[in-house]
Design a protein that fits this description.
The complex is a heterodimer of chains A (182) and B (588). With 182 residues, chain A is of the alpha+beta class. Chain A has four helices and nine strands; from the N terminus they run βαββαββαββαββ. In chain B, the strands form four sheets. Chain B has a six-stranded parallel β-sheet with strand order 3-2-4-5-7-6, sandwiched between helices. The chains are: A alpha+beta (182), B alpha/beta (588).
């Protein structure tokens, strides 16, 4: 749990922190990411991963997805503090266990080794929509999309099979079904 | 074709449209075009300070005493960094400031140019919002937006960074939009249901207390009016935070005095024992709550605040009403009055026992102190100052430390906007420049800075500003030669190891007054204190009053850190059995 708040009060009963995903719609303007990230660091909140890109070029809106941990009280504060920022339009948050929401991360694995090792890698990735983006006789770049912990697991698993470099994004989120965030 | 204006002209056109009359500033290379334009705008008066921090605090004093936003104009680099303390102070205490800073020309940004700094980067965490204007066509929109952000919702400081080439560039001027969508940042959406629920709680309460804060002051004089009605309608006791003093008359019988670390015995015990706590425009600051786990353990808690992020931040509440204090309280008053027959009267009898208990606490007379014939007790000095100025409409600012707490305890305020003190940030050196700003806003009124000798030395240079503009501010220094609050904590927590809290080479304040060209008065004897204070009040011009007080006096009562409200230290005799031990030490 991040130790934030007043430097003076006694840390009271510790609640269990949970992982939450925040989705923030902001004006795509200079410094907006710094404002959001600065709020997290300034108030002692965690950022586990971060993904940001413009999603509406006409309205000039970017969508920031932040994975964070905190007690329910801290999560409430994060939402309320984010809402106060001038360029923020709306804020949604979800528990990681929320069945109504899809969370995905993308990873690129570079595997170097003999053909059979690369095949083994591909096989191991089968569940996560592997796509081969580049291939030589001795190497391959494999793209997968999966949950954070699945990618963590794959990362470990592929090491002995010749994985020499991993590049991964932060999580992005989307609700299931026809409804959208409000 | 519409007329084209330079950036500098647009700055002033915006200020005129925002009805700005005074700006506090200091010129420099990157704001020269704006300073050049000043002469063409006679309705705007510029107050030249001696240090940019002084400009910021003066603007704060101006804003808090007048209800209008304070405007600051500084140059790039050091000009901007010097104002950071004042911006942070304003951010903590929710004071509306608009700070305009110069910046190096756009093509030089990022090159480590002369007097360049990342002003928007540095001030991002200490402003509500800030802007770097890189396109002249954005300037008028940004300027108007800045005033809107600073003054709406929970007020606060904003900063506009204008590169020098933008100040020269030309474009059309856009007037402010009358009605703008508030982008969801203004919160005044409470419902009648919430009000009804609160009124129900009011009627059931047997041991209620109202705890009001700076939000009442920020909401405007009408909020104080509504609060007074509310207190009268309910018959409930009321206590106030440091920032809320003056919203309710300090000499009224229903007022229990300030609460918190140096609050009164009755206020803190009532907070601890109450069954209904109504927080109006305060934020459960850690100087108020003491130990969170044992904060008002048996009460239903209601929180009325305009800032939704204040709710449940520190203390979980049972009923939250997000809205402007004036509209919420007026609505409550209306609802109570409508249902007046029956419950209202019976409620007053409900709480008769509670009042009896409060009177018992009052008998402890927790603000009492042992007076002396030989040396001036600081509490006595503040009391005499109050008695001799209470019939005038006096404005009081303070620095930070023991004198600030004594002022809060012993000076009684009857009107809002009369008390300007740095609470959240606790900025030593706030009071003198703030007094400059207050006097600018109220040229005919008596403005006193109750100061400590250590604090006042931090921004002493602004005496020169006061003299330049002939501002008759009175700097009433409680001189104990120590950083008193530091010394007090060292006495209580660090075995009287007075490490670096004694100022060995203090200046002669009489000579200092003479050097600045103002009047100096010195008092070190209780018997002629009144005459000297009267001399200060009667003098038409700035005064430095060097009041030598007992250097060993401590500020009581107090809640030691790590203790709940009902474990206060009342005075020197009470300390022995209430020593701060172990864990509490780390908390100060």
């Amino acid at each position: 749990m991040p130790k934030s708040k007043s430097a003076y009060s006694i840390p009271t009963k510790k609640q269990k922190p949970d992982t939450y995903i925040f989705v923030v719609w902001v004006d795509n303007e200079a410094g907006v990411l710094a404002r959001v990230v600065g709020l997290f660091s300034g108030r002692g909140y965690n950022i586990e991963s971060l993904a940001v890109a413009e999603v509406d070029a006409v309205k000039n809106i970017s969508r920031i997805t932040i994975v964070t941990t905190g007690t329910p009280q801290v999560i409430d504060q994060i939402r309320l503090q984010l809402t106060k920022l001038v360029p923020v339009h709306k804020v949604a948050e979800f528990k990681r266990e929320d069945k109504g929401v899809i969370f995905k991360e993308m990873a690129l694995f570079k595997v170097v080794g003999k053909r059979n090792k690369i095949e083994k890698c591909l096989n191991a990735c089968k569940k996560f929509n592997p796509v081969i983006l580049d291939e030589t006789k001795t190497s391959a770049v494999i793209q997968i999309t999966a949950l954070r912990r699945e990618i963590d697991k794959m990362n470990k698993k592929l090491k002995p099979l010749g994985l020499i470099s991993t590049s991964r994004t932060g999580a992005v989120a989307m609700t299931r079904g026809a409804k959208i965030f409000n | 074709m519409p007329k084209l204006f330079t950036g500098a002209e647009i700055v002033f056109k915006c200020l005129e449209d925002q009805k700005v009359e005074h700006i506090f500033g200091y010129p420099g290379g990157a704001v020269l075009p704006i300073y050049d334009e000043l002469k063409n705008h006679p309705s705007i008066k510029h107050i030249l300070v001696r240090h940019e921090q002084g400009a910021g605090h003066a603007a704060e004093g101006y804003a808090r005493s007048s209800g209008k936003p304070g405007v600051v104009l500084v140059t790039s680099g050091p000009g901007a960094t010097n104002v950071v303390t004042a911006l942070t102070d304003a951010y903590m205490d929710s004071v509306p400031l608009v700070c305009i800073s110069g910046q190096v020309p756009t093509h030089l940004i990022g090159t480590d140019a002369f007097q360049e700094c990342d002003t928007t980067g540095i001030t991002r965490p200490c402003t509500k919002h800030n802007w770097l204007v890189k396109d002249i066509n954005d300037l008028s929109k940004v300027m108007h937006e800045a005033f809107r952000v600073a003054t709406t919702g929970r007020p606060g400081p904003v900063l506009i960074d204008i590169p020098k080439d933008i100040q020269f560039a030309k474009t059309k001027y856009k007037k402010p939009n009358k009605e703008k969508k508030l982008n969801g940042k203004s919160h005044n959406k409470f419902s009648q249901d919430q009000i009804d629920e609160l009124v129900k709680l009011l009627s059931k309460a047997k041991k209620p207390i109202i705890y009001s804060g700076g939000g009442v002051i920020n909401s405007g004089p009408k909020a104080s009016q509504a609060l007074r009605e509310f207190v009268e309608l309910t018959g409930f006791p009321i206590t106030s935070t440091l920032q809320g003093l003056g919203a309710y008359p300090g000499d009224d019988n229903q007022f229990l005095g300030m609460l918190g670390m140096h609050g009164t015995y009755e206020a803190n015990n009532a907070m601890h024992d109450c069954d209904l706590l109504i927080n109006i425009g305060a934020r459960f600051d850690d100087r108020i709550t003491g130990k969170i786990d044992e904060f008002s353990p048996n009460s239903k808690k209601v929180h009325i605040d305009i800032d939704p992020s204040s709710i449940n931040k520190i203390i979980k509440v049972d009923l939250a009403i997000v809205g402007d204090v004036t509209s919420v309280i007026s609505k409550i008053n209306k609802t109570i009055s409508k249902r007046k027959n029956g419950h209202n009267k019976s409620n007053k009898s409900n709480i008769a026992k509670w009042w009896e208990q409060i009177e018992k606490w009052r008998e402890k007379d927790s603000l009492n102190f042992v007076n002396s014939d030989e040396s001036i007790k600081p509490q006595h000095a503040v009391q005499r100052l109050y008695e001799l100025t209470k019939n005038k409409d006096t404005y009081v600012t303070t620095e930070v430390g023991q004198h600030q707490m004594w002022a809060a305890q012993h000076y009684k305020f009857n009107k809002p906007n009369r008390w300007m003190t740095s609470g959240g940030l606790g900025t030593m050196g706030y009071g003198l420049p703030a007094a400059v700003g207050v006097q600018i806003a109220h040229p005919e009124k008596l403005v006193i800075d109750i100061a400590g000798e250590a604090s006042v030395l931090m921004t002493m240079q602004e005496m020169s500003t006061a003299v330049q503009y002939n501002l008759p501010i009175k700097i009433f220094i409680l001189n104990n030669q120590y950083m008193g609050m530091v010394r007090q904590w060292q006495e209580l927590l660090h075995e009287k190891n007075y490490s670096e809290s004694y100022s060995e080479a203090l200046p002669d304040f009489m000579k200092m007054a003479e050097a600045y060209g103002c009047k100096g008065i010195k008092a070190d004897n209780p018997s002629d204190l009144d005459d000297k204070i009267q001399e200060m009040i009667d003098y038409d011009g700035p005064v430095i009053f060097d009041c030598h007080v007992d250097p060993n006096e401590n500020c009581f009562p107090m809640i030691p850190s790590g203790k709940p409200h009902n474990q206060m230290i009342l005075g020197p005799n009470d300390q022995e059995d209430n020593k701060i031990k172990g864990k509490g030490k780390a908390l100060v």
